[in-house]
Amino acid sequence: MAMVQPIATRRSATGIPTGKLAMWWLLGSEITIFGGLLVSYIMMRIMYAPWAEAAAHTNTLAGSINTFVLLTSSLFAVLAHHAAEQKNGKLAAFYLWLTIGGALTFLVVKGIEWTNEIRHGFTITANTFWSFYYTAAGLHGLHVIAGATAMAIVSFDCLRGKNLQRVELVGIYWHFVDIVWIFLFPLLYIAK
Amino acid sequence: MTTHVAADHAHSEGDHGHHELSFIQKYVFSTDHKVIGLQYFMTGVLMGVLGALASYVFRMQMAFPGHAVPGFGLVTPQIYNQMVTNHGTIMIFWFAMPVLIAAFGNYLIPLMIGCDDMVFPRLNRLSYQIFLFSALLLIASFFVPNGGFGGAWTSYPPLASNPIYNQTPYGAPMWLAAVALEFVAFLLGGINFITTLMNARAPGMKMYDIPMVVWMIVIASILFMASVGPLVAGAAMLFLDQTLGTGFFDPARGGDPLLWEHLFWFFGHPEVYVVLLPAMGIVAEVLTVFARKKLFAYRTVLWTAVATGVLSFFVWAHHQFVAGIDPRMANIFTVTTLLISVPITEMSFVYIGTLYGASIQLSTPMLFAIAFIVEFLIGGVTGIFLGASGADIYFHDTYFVLAHFHYTFVPIAVIAVFAGVYYWFPKMFGRYMNDTWGRVHFWGTAIPFNGIFLPLFYTGMAGDHRRTFNHLNFPDLARGDLNFLRELSTVSLLVMLAFQVIFFVNFFYSMFRGKKAPANPWNANTFEWVAASPPPHGNFVTLPHCYRGPYEYSVPGHSSDFWPQNEPAPKT
Predict the structure, then answer these.
(1) Cα(A31)–Cα(B390) distance, rounded to whole angstroms?
(2) Which pLDDT does position B271 carry in this prediction?
């Protein structure tokens, strides 16, 4: 059933579009989720020095490649937003798919990396460091999948020139996913 | 988008417009905020009845240990734990929150700020559907092998994290998943509430023109959002502990059970204020209308609510004074905990100040609103003893604690909710509830409520431990000569439950047969009374414009003793 948009959705007492406002509140709630997880990790990491030894087994090269991939994909997200502002839906969809390509590359690298670690016996139950490693990266990975799915949906609208303002919203979300990784990378890979 | 631009005034009364909706579209998969509000209300009340029945079972066991409970049977230790755990969980997450925040928030916010719906109606529907699923998942957890989770609503590990200890390999993860899904539902709903208040207010409605209940529900949503995140992460960790065998919270495997307590109470204490603030808001609306007086110090109430919210993030460790935290930390948390009683006291004083010199009408909603203040004060004052770490070491986990927090939660989730239901019922269904039976219900709720929990303060001080299944097994801890108090408490509960039948009969009878109510039966000022009773889809014939604050009652020089927010000032 096609829904009639209520008048409420079109009001903007703050001057900020409602969709963008909601996106920032969504990110606010996400920040507290990742914040709680990472603060727990940091506190325990400080308390238990032996974790450094476990952390030495993480694959810094794979982590670096993924950092590069995600940062590049964020550039494509910005280009998609730029194209959407020019009302060029087809170009915006093209850049969105390049961003999704980045997301898929990230997941493939992650898959190879995890397979190697599990084969060396570093599973999620190996010790608490590895539990945090898989939980934090796994939760982030779910966000990568969610972001890629959202971008795919928006891209189909873009091709028909509809809802171009949503390109900016998925872009904001994608930058958030990117920034979470920027915190995870040093905490899980670099700090030995 | 263009299709609707001209439709700003198209929602006329009784005109469902373009297409007649089927029953299922209208009541099951509706995106209308009023229907979703009522869905939340009915689901929440139904879950509340379940929680109340659980309390019947374990209270009978407390007073008459070892005897079969009429209508239930013999209570085993496992069943007792399951009942206590799910009573707490249901009453907080599936009764207090859906009714106070989701039901009243959904129903009232768009009406009171003068617009036709929430800004994201489909997100709103999704939020309810996730909530409903979480409720069904929780109920299903009672029926899996080994039964439902019995590790208390706080779910402390390692008891909660390891199936070998809690013996509920299916019940525990299902309980946890249900709670986590409920959080998701309220996060989605909260985003909707906050953005709706920020962006969809009626033209002319400035910050201090917003009705207090709307402010309170939105501040509560922000508090919830800011506090629940770490617990969502914690729930994911606990879930992995339970199912995959990780050791986040298990000291035997390098984890730390205190970490869970921090994550849980960092949410758990703000949660108290998440449910308190909407109750405070409901009471503010009812008090001003039936005192025919302006809310004393509107801005003070608003900013104290904000201050309470901020402070509530710095008090959580007072739940852990005996859990092995650093004593220096206990000192700090004692200070912050005692500090938070200041804004709450201030709010109570402001409400009493509103009553001072007013022409009070003791209608049913007003009785409940005044009872809220009185009873909540008892809960607040007894909290001082528990917030001070020195005294808490003796009171911890006794019935004194239990009586204290029921003196906060019952006024919030039961008494204030009844005030709101009796007050907004004419708006919701276009009919009055019976006032005489309302008063009977009021006294039949307020008096037994004190009968349940006043004795428990005393047995708690005498040492009754709240986790004891059968006090006959612990003669050194539980004094046998106090058994009449335990029985008094249980009998009071039976009386209170019996009087709720009057409420339900009154509610459903009045829904169809009650006296017809006009659009503004209480002569109130806020926007929801401008709309027809019950409001049609789209709420208003013409969306209102806001000209003044919500509490302009008995304004000197004005022709009537109320002055609706949508009424333009007379030309002079």
Answers:
(1) 36
(2) 94
